[in-house]
Design a protein that fits this description.
Oligomer: single chain
Largest sheet: 5 strands, mixed
CATH class of the largest domain: Alpha Beta
Shape: globular
Strand content: 25-35%
Order of helices and strands: EEHHEHEHEHEEEEEEEEEHEHHHEE
CATH architecture of the largest domain: 3-Layer(aba) Sandwich
Number of strands: 17
Structural class: alpha+beta
CATH superfamily of the largest domain: Thiolase/Chalcone synthase
Bound molecules: acetyl coenzyme *A
Radius of gyration: 20 Å
Length: 339
Amino acid sequence: MTPLKMHGSHILSTGSAIPDICIDNDLLGTILDTSDSWISTRTGIKERNILGRDQSIIDLATIASKKALTKGLLQAEDLDLIIFATSTSNDLFGSASQLQHALGAKQAAAFDITAACSGFVISLIIAHQFIQTNVYNNILIVGADTLSQWVDWSDRTTCILFGDGAGAAILQKNQDNDILSFEINTDGSEAHQLCINHKRNFQQDTKHNNLINIPSNNYYQHLRMNGKEVYKFAVSKVPESIGKCLKQISMNSKDITWLLLHQANQRILETVANKLNIPVEKILSNIQFYGNTSAASIPIALDEAFDAGHICHKDIIAIAGFGAGLTWGSMIIKWHINE
Ligand code: ACO
């Protein structure tokens, strides 16, 4: 039997989109018992943007995707697959097909991945498998979330953290391979630390002697989080996970040019960097502007850092996502700009 030839994955281009409505900490202080000083010292967040009434998650995802297509000099018809990482789909059956239609990506298969703030990293790893095994050539990976619609805006312990946004990347088959190593993890026993639970209600069916319970008025509750436990989880598991990825390729933290973590809290970013002996100057952070945009945070930061000229050819980037599930995953990539 001929051994399977593995192909390389190349991050061809990126794009991002942020909604127009900006809510800064001072504005939050007028509707909640909070302050700019409390929020910025504990989290690093100064402002966040949220969806307007006439916008949807698909609009944001479409803008981010079109930017990635333009930068990659591709047409929507060139896409073979779309992976849409989101936990805030506007349809319980998934949003990827709506994005496929909005882009006119008629040749592309499309599906959603729900893995909260780890969603983009997990989707990139899935896309990498399809490229390595020669199934697809061009894959669009989108991370988008609109948690503003799922938080309780009277709960100062959660709503101050989150913002809406979308980020996209195109992974392309290539001779060189940008994804050097990766690993993902799940600990379902801690799922209750961060969740948006479905509430089931039933009405008794009197016509059938109460034998049948008919679902009635079901709904999703607001986002609930044990901030302290999520914090402890992130600062212990993320350095360990990045360490494992480095070990797989015989690298160490000195080889890392940029540390790109899910933008959850500036303190988490700095503690993880500290534990890995990575100088804080190597942290890519835009949390002060957007807050925690869940699955969108990593691709937005990647897009902005590349556009700003921070990320250069051959830079080594350690990327890690972490969050609800609890899930966490890391990858080491070597940034590669085609001549
Ligand atoms: N403004 C003012 N006071 C506040 C606020 C606020 N917005 N929120 C909480 N407080 C108060 C609390 O009521 C408490 O008061 P008390 O001492 O009188 O009881 C006090 O501040 C301290 O509250 P803690 O919850 O202990 O604050 P902590 O230092 O833990 O910071 C925070 C909270 C910022 C949420 C932190 O725990 C954290 O960042 N955790 C990680 C969260 C995270 O990253 N989540 C996203 C994961 S990604 C995903 O999957 C979606």
